[in-house]
Amino acid sequence: MMKWWGWGAYDVSFPMDQKPNLWPWARTKLGLEVERSTPPVERASLRFASPVMNDAFVGALAAAVPHAECSSSDEDRLHHAYGKSYPNLWRARCGDLGRLPDLVVRPSSREDVESILALAHAHEACVIPFGGGTNIVGGVDPLLGERRMIVCLDLRRMNRVVSVDRYAMTAVIQAGASGPELEQQLQKHGLSLGHFPDSFEYSTLGGWLATRSAGMQSDAYGRIEDMVVSVTMATPMGVIETRPVPASSAGPDLNRVVVGSEGVLGVIVEATMRVHAAPAAKDYRGLLFRSFSDGVAAIHDCLRAGIRPSMIRLQDEGETELAFRMKAPPKGLSGLLQGGVKAYLARSGYARPCIMVIGFEGQPADVRRLRVQALRVMKRRGAFPLGASVGGAWSKDKYNMPYLRDYIMDRGVMCDVSETSATWDKVVDVHARTIAAVEELFREEQGGHGVVGCHISHTYDTGACLYFTYAARQIEGRELDQYYRYKRRITDGFMQSGAALTHHHAVGTEHRPWMEQEVSSTGLRALRGLKAALDPKGIMNPGKLIPDEGKTAQPPP
Amino acid sequence: MMKWWGWGAYDVSFPMDQKPNLWPWARTKLGLEVERSTPPVERASLRFASPVMNDAFVGALAAAVPHAECSSSDEDRLHHAYGKSYPNLWRARCGDLGRLPDLVVRPSSREDVESILALAHAHEACVIPFGGGTNIVGGVDPLLGERRMIVCLDLRRMNRVVSVDRYAMTAVIQAGASGPELEQQLQKHGLSLGHFPDSFEYSTLGGWLATRSAGMQSDAYGRIEDMVVSVTMATPMGVIETRPVPASSAGPDLNRVVVGSEGVLGVIVEATMRVHAAPAAKDYRGLLFRSFSDGVAAIHDCLRAGIRPSMIRLQDEGETELAFRMKAPPKGLSGLLQGGVKAYLARSGYARPCIMVIGFEGQPADVRRLRVQALRVMKRRGAFPLGASVGGAWSKDKYNMPYLRDYIMDRGVMCDVSETSATWDKVVDVHARTIAAVEELFREEQGGHGVVGCHISHTYDTGACLYFTYAARQIEGRELDQYYRYKRRITDGFMQSGAALTHHHAVGTEHRPWMEQEVSSTGLRALRGLKAALDPKGIMNPGKLIPDEGKTAQPPP
C-alpha cells in the first residue's frame, strides 16, 4: 500500500541527501526565506465516518461470491479513498478524507467481477474500480455527497499474465497486474510490454487502459491503446468482449471505447496485448541545445528524416536547471573539468541550455545506425553531446519525481503537473504561453517566486506532448483555491491555443469541466449514450469523465 | 458515374484482349463447356417506382438550403441505388433495382449537411450518405420495404483539400474527395495521404473513414483510422467535432467512434488527416516461394527482424496461377528462356509456386537497405527473386480486378471476395480451412469446378489480412442462394477459427448477421446506445451495421 498522505511505499522517500545542491537552490527560487514545516496530520487523528451499508447488496454478495475478500476496515478504506492528485494529498494531509468508500472488495476472477457488477446494478450500489491508486486527476475518488453505498473494487489480486503467444507476439494479461508484476512475468518469456509510465512501479494494466496511458517508451512501442489486441470489460449490463484479431473493420472499434472509459462504463478485467522481444541493445545519450526551440526543431528534423528514436525527452531551460541541481556536485579534477566545460558552453551560446535525453533500443546494428543518423541531424541544430552518463542519471531518477512532491509539500509548497499535446506548428507557442501564464501567476501571488519547467515527453509524426511541472509557496488558508487558479489558467490556455485537454493523465474530476470544449457537446451526447446503455442506473464511478447534463461545467471546489 | 450494372466508367472494361491466356484457362477451371451469355438487361427496360416524397421535408429543404442540388431523375436514382456487391450487381443485371432512393441531394458544405440532417430528423426522412458508391457489403443500399422517404446524400461536391500544414504534416480534407482528387491536390504540395484501396479510383475519404478502410500501402502509412487527427461528423442531434491534436487521453477516442460508423450515426463531412512527403524512391520486387506457408514464414521472419516493407502481397498457389495466366505469353528468345526457368523451378520444388510482391518506399538509402535486409531474410525461406518486372505487372493491373468480375458475370459466372484477418499463429490454418471450405462447395455444387485463391494483403506485428477470391458457375435460378451459401460457409469458418469478421470491407448488410458474434451482445448494446443518442429516430442509413434488437441474426435473402 502507498502512503495515505503521499507517494510510494511507507519506507521510501526522496533521496534529498544525495542531492545537496537541490534544496538550497529551490528554496531561493521559491522565496522560502522562512521554511515552514507542514507535515500531514497524525494517522491517529483521522476520523472515519461509519460505512454506508446496503444490506441487500452485502447479503447477496456474500451468498454469490463467498470467496471474495471484503473489508470495511479503516486501513482499507483509507488506502482506497482517493488517488494522488495535489488536492487529494493536500486534503489527506489536513485529515480530510472526503467521502470514504464503504467496502473494499478484492475479486479474483472475471466471474467475480461480473457477479459483483450484476448485484451492484440490482441493488444500486456504486462501484469504483481501483488498481494502483496512482491517478492524479481525481479518477478514483468517491463523489462527495454520494448517499448510495460505495464499493471500491480493488483488482490487485488479478495480476497474472494468463498466457503468451510468442509467434503472434501477444499476451493475455489480467487488469490488476502492476507494471513490475507483468514485466517480471513476461521477462520469463524474454518479452516485454514496453509500457513505462512515471507511475510504473504502482499502476496497473487496467488503470493504463482506463486512462489511455502513455509511457516513457511510447515513441517506440505506442501508447497503451496501440498495444491492445482485444479487451474484456464487465459492465452492469454484461460483458463487452472483443476478439483478438490484428485488425478489423467491423464497425467502430470497441477496444477504443473501452480504453479511456475511466471506470464509468465498466470494469476492465483482462486484455490481450501486443508484446515485444526484450531489446538486445539500449543506448541512451544526453545532448545540450542552446534553446528549447532549437531542441524542438531538432526533433522535428529527425522525425521528418524518418529517424524514430525509442525515446526523446527534451527539457526546457527551467527543467534543465532543475536537472543540473539534482546532480551531486563533482569533486576534484572532474569538478574542475566540468567547470571548464561549463564556462566554454556559456561562451558558445549555451548559457541557459536545454538537455535532451535520447534513447535507442533494438538490435545492436539498428541502434548504432539510428543513433549516428539522429545525432548527425541534431548537430545541425546545435546539439552538444553530453555522452551516455546523462541518460544514466535520468534513468536512475526516472521514478523518483513523485516522491519529491511529498518532500516539498512537507515544507509548505504546492507542486503540480499539467500535460498536453499539440501539433508541431503549435508546440513552441503552447510552451511559451504556458510558461508565461505560470510566471504571471507567480508574480500575482508569490512575488514572482516559483519554479516552472517543461519537457517534451512523447513525440508523434504530427506533434508532441508538453509536460509542465510547477511549484510555488502555498498560500496559507486557501491552498486549494490557489491550485485551482493555476489549473484553470493553464488548462484554459491549452484549450485556447489548440492544444489537448490532456495527453496521458486522463479526465477524472479535474479535467471534466473542459470535456465539452474538448469533444463538443454532441461528442458528450455520444459518451452519455454509451453510459446510458451500459450503466443505466449510473452506478459506475459516478462523477468522473462525463459532465452532468445541463450543469454548467465548473472546476471542482 | 459508374456503370449501373458493374464497376467503373462506362467506357472502361477489363482488357481481356491483352491477356489471351486467361479466359481459356479460366473456362476450363470453371467447367464452362458451353459458355453462356448473361448480359445485364437493357437500360430501357428498367422500371422506376415513383419516389416517395415527404412534402414537409422537401419544402423545408428548399427553403433552408436553396442552393443544394436535388434530383429525383431516374438517372440519379439509378446511380445511387446500391453499391457494388455481387448481390447488388446480380439484381441490377436482372433489372431488380430494389428500393430506390427518392431524392439525391448534393450538399456543398458542412452547413448544408447540418441543415439537411436537422430537417430529416424533424420530418423523419431517412438519409444515406453516399461517396463513390463502391461499397461491396450493402452499405449504401436503401432498406427494402422502407416506407419513409429516402434521401441519398451524395458528398461528391465536397471534394477539396481545404488546407495543408506542411510543418505538422496534416491536411484538412472534405469527405467527398475521391482518391485521385485528394492525391492530386496534395501532390501540389509534394504530399500524399498514402491510402490506396482497390477502389481508389472512385471511393472517397468519407467512405474510407466510414468503413475503416485499409489500402495497399497501409503497412507503411497505417489504416485509415491511424491517419485521422480529427474529424467532423454531422448527426441528427448536432455535430461531433474532435480537436486536431496529436494524441489525447480525454476519454474514449471519439475519432474511433466516428471511424467505422458506416453512416448509421451521422455523415462525416471533413477530417484532418496525417499526410506524408511523396516518397523519393520506390522499389517493388517479385519473389517466388515453394509454398504459401513458406511465404508466410518469410513475412513473419521479416517482421520479427524489425524489417517493415511498405507493402507485402503474398499470393497463394491458386492466385499465383491466376497471375501467371494474366501475363501475356512471352515471345521468341525470352519465351524460350522463361520456359527454361520454369522447368528449372519445377525441378527445384517450385512446381506450384507462390508469388510475393514486396515494395519499399522512402529515402533511396533506406529503400536499398531495407530491400537488402528483407531479401536476405526471405531467401532463408526459399525466396527465388523474380526482379522488378513482377512488381510492375502487379502495379499495372492493381485497379483492374473489379472489372474482371463484370467480364465473367457476363458469362454466367459468380465471383466474390471475402477478407479477414488472423493472428500469426492462425494465418496458415485459416487459409487452409477457407480454401478447403470453398473447394468443398465447388464439389457440392459445381462438380468440383471453380477458381479460388487468396493473398495476404496487409501485415501487422500480430498477424495479417487474408483476402480470398473465388468464382464458380452460376446456378441458374438460384444465383443469390448460391452466393449466400458461400458467404455463410466462409464467414462461419472465419468466426469459428478465431479470424475477424472483416478486415477492411466493413459490415453493411452482408456481415451484419455476424456482428453479435464479433463484438459480443454487450458490445452491440454499446453501439445501440450510440445510435440512440445520436440518431434517436433511426433515420441514418437504416438496416446497416447494427443488427435489430431481439431479431435472430440471419444472412440477408
TrEMBL record, chains A, B:
Q: Where does substrate bind?
A: 405
Q: Site annotation (Important for enzyme activity): which residues?
A: 313
Family to which the UniProt record says this protein belongs? Belongs to the FAD-binding oxidoreductase/transferase type 4 family.
What this protein is called in its record is FAD-binding oxidoreductase
- The species this protein was found in: Alsobacter soli
Active-site residue numbers: 467 (proton donor/acceptor)
- FAD-binding PCMH-type domain location is 97-278
Matches recorded under PANTHER family: ALKYLDIHYDROXYACETONEPHOSPHATE SYNTHASE, PEROXISOMAL
The cofactor required is: FAD
Q: Recite the lineage of the species.
A: Bacteria, Pseudomonadati, Pseudomonadota, Alphaproteobacteria, Hyphomicrobiales
